[in-house]
Amino acid sequence: MERCLCYVTLCLLGLGLLQTDAFEVEIKDGSKRTCIYASMKINFTIEYETNSSKFRNVTLAAPDSVTTEGSSCGETTLLNVSFGNGHFWSLLFMKNNKEYKASLLSLIYNTNDMVLFPDAKNKGQFTSSTNTSFFEPVPLNSTYKCFHDDAVITEHVVQLYWNVTLQAYVENSTLGKDFQCSADIPTTPTANTTTLPSTTATTPKPTPKPIDKPTVGNYSVSNGTEVCLLASMGLQLNASMLVEGKNVWTVFNINPNTTAYSGNCGNETSLLRLTDTNTVVEFYFLIAFFIKQMLI
Ligand SMILES: *[C@@H]1O[C@H](CO)[C@@H](O)[C@H](O)[C@H]1NC(C)=O
Ligand SMILES: *[C@@H]1O[C@H](CO)[C@@H](O)[C@H](O)[C@H]1NC(C)=O
Ligand SMILES: *[C@@H]1O[C@H](CO)[C@@H](O)[C@H](O)[C@H]1NC(C)=O
Ligand SMILES: *[C@@H]1O[C@H](CO)[C@@H](O)[C@H](O)[C@H]1NC(C)=O
Ligand SMILES: *[C@@H]1O[C@H](CO)[C@@H](O)[C@H](O)[C@H]1NC(C)=O
Ligand SMILES: *[C@@H]1O[C@H](CO)[C@@H](O)[C@H](O)[C@H]1NC(C)=O
Ligand SMILES: *[C@@H]1O[C@H](CO)[C@@H](O)[C@H](O)[C@H]1NC(C)=O
Ligand SMILES: *[C@@H]1O[C@H](CO)[C@@H](O)[C@H](O)[C@H]1NC(C)=O
Ligand SMILES: *[C@@H]1O[C@H](CO)[C@@H](O)[C@H](O)[C@H]1NC(C)=O
Ligand SMILES: *[C@@H]1O[C@H](CO)[C@@H](O)[C@H](O)[C@H]1NC(C)=O
Ligand SMILES: *[C@@H]1O[C@H](CO)[C@@H](O)[C@H](O)[C@H]1NC(C)=O
Ligand SMILES: *[C@@H]1O[C@H](CO)[C@@H](O)[C@H](O)[C@H]1NC(C)=O
């Protein structure tokens, strides 16, 4: 990618947490002890080919009523959730002596579903899966909690999930202590403020400060064997944030020194995720590229 200085203006989507469906499931072993607990909201956006050879996206929210046949505890700890007309969503877990993670995420969708795919050209079951971790590794006997949304892109499918409570390898049928995802951890002020807020009810107005040019950072993503995405850029963002019901525009830089990055590459889609102290910017590269989401 060209060396560039990108000034990006974004509108923060806020977390428009509408009350949509959420499912809650518990997987038990033969002796009725819980090994997996999961509750979350997921939206799937699936691109399919219609009978007039056009592509169309359909979005479905995982409903609150699901079944969990095919899930298992033990050597293969698998959450296999089935919903609607022959759709399956599954997470395969792995652990070492300290942590566990979801090692394989897959969605099997059935285009025979006349409600979702009335005009699908190819009828049948399609599988879209990835090794991308659904969440960061979690210490054993801890419950992963993440209120913020996150997305995983697999072939033809974008999975958006939020308000996740999940634990695999549950011990003694009791959820362990909470493990908060990094996106949810609030920023800690660098210095203690000595002045107390004034007693009046007015909101302190953020004073706009002149802002330096952003530092150029170099980011690369490998597909396992080769670097597949290379970006060199300085990022300055102008974002609108909701402060006490009012939109406030704030300009800030992404500092490469404090920014962690990750990503993945697929045939058709690639992802570059930059995580600065309290900001996550995700670049999704499709045929063109666009910023899918930014969380602050
Ligand atoms: C489907 O959604 C993806 C990601 O949101 C988008 O890039 C793609 O253009 C959409 N396809 C159609 C046919 O609208
Ligand atoms: C999830 O999908 C449902 C149904 O299509 C839609 O109403 C809702 O707005 C979506 N939610 C998000 C956060 O995308
Ligand atoms: C989930 O269950 C369905 C139906 O039993 C099966 O076809 C599918 O392969 C299972 N998924 C996984 C990842 O095992
Ligand atoms: C495509 O499928 C829809 C729904 O089954 C049908 O109404 C329509 O006539 C089909 N169009 C073509 C070109 O086959
Ligand atoms: C996941 O990774 C394993 C090896 O680590 C590989 O065998 C498998 O094909 C990968 N699966 C996907 C869907 O990329
Ligand atoms: C998030 O999930 C919890 C249960 O795990 C539920 O009580 C809460 O209402 C949900 N919040 C939103 C905004 O969906
Ligand atoms: C498991 O839970 C039961 C009931 O809550 C409790 O009596 C028992 O001490 C627990 N065992 C361990 C090893 O934590
Ligand atoms: C798991 O975590 C819970 C809560 O922190 C604790 O009470 C329990 O003893 C732990 N169980 C084991 C086996 O470490
Ligand atoms: C900041 O405040 C906390 C709690 O009020 C206090 O424990 C800590 O010592 C303070 N730190 C500094 C640098 O003043
Ligand atoms: C990485 O990309 C290169 C070049 O496109 C390809 O040859 C290689 O097979 C890819 N590796 C993986 C693990 O996908
Ligand atoms: C980043 O680190 C370099 C080297 O330590 C330093 O020269 C530079 O000023 C830092 N940039 C920012 C924006 O903190
Ligand atoms: C993705 O790449 C694999 C291996 O190169 C190929 O078999 C598959 O057809 C590709 N998928 C798409 C949708 O291009």
TrEMBL record:
Cellular compartments annotated: Cell membrane; Cytoplasmic vesicle, Autophagosome membrane; Endosome membrane; Lysosome membrane
GO process annotations (BP): autophagosome maturation; cellular response to starvation; protein targeting to lysosome involved in chaperone-mediated autophagy
Record keyword DNA-binding present: no
Region feature Disordered, mapped onto this chain: 190-216
Lysosome-associated membrane glycoprotein 2-like luminal domain residues: 26-169, 214-288
Keyword annotations from UniProtKB, A to Z: Autophagy, Cell membrane, Endosome, Glycoprotein, Lysosome, Membrane, Signal, Transmembrane, Transmembrane helix
InterPro entries: Lamp2-like_luminal, LAMP_CS, Lysosome-assoc_membr_glycop
GO cellular component assignments: autophagosome membrane; late endosome membrane; lysosomal membrane; plasma membrane
Membrane association type: Single-pass type I membrane protein
Pfam families xref list: Lamp2-like_luminal
Coiled coil: none
Span of the signal peptide: 1-22
Residue ranges, compositional bias (Low complexity): 190-204
PANTHER family: LYSOSOME-ASSOCIATED MEMBRANE GLYCOPROTEIN, LYSOSOME-ASSOCIATED MEMBRANE GLYCOPROTEIN 2
Family the UniProt entry places it in: Belongs to the LAMP family.
Protein name: Lysosome-associated membrane glycoprotein 2
Organism of derivation: Pyxicephalus adspersus
